[in-house]
Amino acid sequence: MSQATKRKHVVKEVLGEHMVPSDQQQIVRVLRTPGNNLHEVETAQGQRFLVSMPSKYRKNIWIKRGDFLIVDPIEEGEKVKAEISFVLCKDHVRSLQKEGLWPEAFSDVAEKHNSNRNRQTQPELAAEPQSSGEESSSEDDSDLFVNTNRRQYHESEEESEEEEAA
How far apart are CA 135 and CA 115, in angstroms? Predict the structure, then answer.
């Protein structure tokens, strides 16, 4: 199976399938990723441990801090105590909350996580110019997206007039 075909099937499985945790499985929240396909997670009871990512998810599915997972326990593990069996997206979280299977400790965290994502997208929408039927001048760059990872260089009108006159 080619890498592209494998990726297609893994992404389809994660996005499309509705997963309900079994008795052995737990819902956990990712705290950090120390590397080497390991993730530090926290259970609803506050217990912290490492989980490993199976090879089918590596380089196909990306997990970041604050995401929710369903994990299978590993009995012989000392540091790594579980393996990721499913990555939960926001649609999965909502359906688990409706069914009453979502841990109470994570209910506030999930709502804050979704509201923070909504707040981050709202300023970009507000920066779009409102069409009032008038054409804006091409020199007005106030409606452009500002990259916060770069230094902002501000050029005053006096300096630009001096350069044009020279």
Answer: 35
The pair phi, psi for residue 49, each rounded to 5°, is: -160, 175
**pLDDT in 10s for each residue of the chain, 166 residues:** 788 887 888 888 877 778 889 999 999 999 999 999 999 999 999 999 999 999 988 888 889 999 999 999 999 888 899 999 999 988 999 999 999 999 998 987 666 655 555 555 444 444 444 444 445 455 666 566 667 777 777 666 665 566 666 5
Give the global pTM: 0.64
Report whether 69 contacts 87 (CB < 8 A). yes
From the list 20, 22, 68, the residue with the least C-alpha distance to 44 is 68
Find out whether 31 and 48 touch, Cβ atoms under 8 Å.
yes
Nearest to 34 by CA among 55, 70, 65, 3: 65
Report CA-CA distances (Å) from 133 to 52, 61, 129, 136. Answer: 56, 44, 11, 9
113: left (phi over 0), alpha (psi -120 to 50) or beta: alpha
Q: How many angstroms separate the CA atoms of 66 and 88, rounded?
A: 11
